[in-house]
Amino acid sequence: MDKKSVMQDLAKVLKTSTILVEEPMKKHTSFKIGGIADIYIKVKELEDIKEVLKYAKQHNINLTIIGNGSNVLVLDKGIRGITLEICLNKQEFEEKEDGMIVTVRCRC
């Protein structure tokens, strides 16, 4: 996986998300520990979540989904692939797409 290419590709389709490359996870966990995430994306819109899921699936990239980082432990070796922080403001949705049901309940 070429991190720079992934970032550039996703930057073209994501509306309001923040995309960071080689982001220290200690900045995003309540315990302030953890190695580097290859690609870290903070998603604020449902459409951006769909785009990241689709991109990761199409390019066979590992995807790790986290909330606000409470009670999350990240190894010093970090997280390979895309780390997705879902930060939707008081939204709930359930959608069936490609035979898969995705349910998200967030309070950011």
What distinguishing features does this structure have?
108 residues, 4-stranded mixed beta sheet, two-stranded antiparallel sheet, 2 helices, 22% helix, 36% strand, globular
Can you walk me through this structure?
- There is one protein chain.
- With 108 residues, the protein is an alpha/beta fold.
- It has 2 helices and 6 strands; from the N terminus they run αββαββββ.
- The strands form 2 sheets. It has a 4-stranded mixed β-sheet, covered by helices on one side. A two-stranded antiparallel sheet has the order 5-6.
- The radius of gyration is 13 Å and the shape is globular.
- The termini are far apart.
Distance between the termini: 30 Å
Structural class: alpha/beta
Side by side, the strands of the main sheet go 1-2-4-3
Report the major sheet.
4 strands, mixed
What is the arithmetic mean of pLDDT? Answer: 87
DSSP strand count: 6
Q: Nearest-angstrom radius of gyration? A: 13 Å
SS summary, helix count: 2
- Give the topology string: H per helix, E per strand: HEEHEEEE
Portion in beta strands: 35-45%
Helix content, binned percent? 10-25%
Q: What's the quaternary structure here?
A: single chain
Give the SSE map.
Elements: H1 3-13, E1 18-24, E2 36-43, H2 46-58, E3 63-66, E4 79-86, E5 92-97, E6 100-105
Question: Gist?
Answer:
Helix content is 22%, strand content 36%. The chain has 108 residues and is of the alpha/beta class. It has a four-stranded mixed beta sheet, covered by helices on one side.
